[in-house]
Write a structure and sequence with these properties.
This protein has a seven-stranded parallel beta sheet, sandwiched between helices. Helix 2 runs parallel beside helix 3. With about 280 residues, the chain is α/β, with parallel strands linked by helices. It is about 35% helix and about 20% strand. The protein has one domain: NAD(P)-binding Rossmann-like Domain (Rossmann fold), CATH 3.40.50.
């Protein structure tokens, strides 16, 4: 079994670490506040924005899962570029077999409902996508045999903002705008699957995957379905605006590549994923 480091070990990192620990791996979680880590993850209290000198020996696999605390350029640079550079420097004497860098599907710039996969062009015209892409390049140009994973909109326990808005009658959706999402448990499951595949057949894991469920869906369809499940008012409609954040996300992303690698989604569509905590 392997020694696995999860850097930026937040809620999805904890899910992943728990899965890997149950498989017999030794898991270390690096974050500034280690109090929230489960017992199965060995804590490393470090700040990624400063030099790192507290790593255990012989790290085999690394998941870089940092996130920006604020939506501003300096925060994105620190999270996705500076922190990664600091970690790579700290790992230079380790026998790392694979680095997984967690990015976002927001780097795809399509906004007219186009079909998108790993080969589609990206857009660095806003600071957030520029920094994410910069971090991807740092990872891929390192000597750590990196794979980039671009997740879509993540939902699941603790991520109930949309449900709260619909219950409060404050939600509105944009007609004709496609959305792509993935349940947090499938984020962890997909990453665990990639590690397992690399251990069994090192050459089978490519350098880039997108992480979304099986069904790109029109936003209003999801809002209407949730409102029906919650017996809430039908959400208001708005016309798409070029300036809206949703409009920049208007695309249909395919997950065919990760499914071809053998991953089966626990929550293949939004209905299975949302029903878990709508019925609890």
């Amino acid at each position: 079994m392997a020694n696995v480091l999860i850097a930026g070990c937040g809620d999805i990192g904890c899910l992943l670490g728990t899965q890997l620990s149950q498989q017999g791996h030794q898991v270390f979680g690096l974050r500034r506040n280690v109090d929230a880590l489960p017992d199965c993850i060995q804590p490393i209290e470090e700040n990624l924005t400063t030099p790192i000198d507290n790593l255990p020996p012989n790290i085999d696999y690394v998941f870089y899962m940092a996130s920006a605390g604020k939506y501003k350029d300096s925060a994105y640079y620190q999270a996705y570029v500076l922190g990664l550079k600091n970690l790579i420097e700290a790992l230079k004497e380790h026998p790392v077999k694979k680095l997984f860098f967690i990015s976002s599907s927001s780097v795809f710039g399509q906004s007219e409902g186009e079909k998108v996969d790993e080969s589609s062009p990206t857009d660095d015209s806003i600071f957030s996508t520029k920094r994410l892409l910069e971090g991807e390049e740092v990872a891929l140009n390192s000597n750590l045999n990196a794979t980039v994973v671009r997740f879509g909109g993540i939902y699941g326990p603790g991520r109930t903002h949309l449900i709260d808005l619909i219950q409060e009658g404050k939600a509105h959706c944009m007609e004709g705008v496609w959305s792509n999402r993935i349940h947090s448990e499938d984020c962890a499951g997909m990453l665990s699957h990639l590690l397992t595949c690399h251990e069994k057949e090192p050459c089978s894991v490519d350098s880039l995957y997108v992480g979304v469920d099986n069904e790109p869906t029109l936003s209003c369809e999801i809002y209407d379905w949730l409102a029906e499940q919650l017996s809430a008012p039908e959400p208001d409609r708005k016309e798409p605006s070029e300036a809206s954040r949703l409009m920049r996300s208007n695309k249909q992303i395919s997950n065919a590549k990760i499914r071809a690698l053998g991953y089966e989604f626990k929550y293949p569509t939004y209905k299975e994923g949302f029903l878990v905590y709508l019925t609890n």
